[in-house]
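Would you mind writing out a protein's amino acid sequence and the numbers that encode its backbone to help me picture the idea?
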Amino acid sequence: MTKLYLIRHGQTVDNVNQIMQGQTQGELTAEGEEQARQLRDRLLQKHFDAFVSSDLKRSVDTCRIIAEPFGMEVVQTPLLRERDWGGFTGRFIPELKGEVWPDDIETLEELLARAQQFLDFIRQQYPGKTVLAVGHGIINKAIQAVFYKKAMRDVPRMANAEIRILDLF
């Protein structure tokens, strides 16, 4: 069994400003960095075989803060990137309510397929290991939806720097 500690990145400037980040790099706030440090301190007594992150800066930075005392490198993968919001990227979220979705948004089917690819990647690369992975709100939700065989709407939203533990068989 592979144990996956699935984490959402720390708070970002765009989270605070309610901007749709999508696959932009993002920048942690001082609070986001502190969230990562607090999470790291809670996990110091745990054993991890690998640290994996989305290749977007906000997740990499969060993962590096957590991984630092373990002396391990962070493996980056685009499989853990946030959903591509296409034309909604960079927009003020409250203004998007009721708007027609642009055609360039990553489809739900594509997102769920990528979530499955990520779970397959972890199972194949780290069989029987304990892996800490830092992703984003929507991709993490998709990963859990695939894992639990639930609809996305039935998976609770993850807060910044929140952990969900999945036992992958």
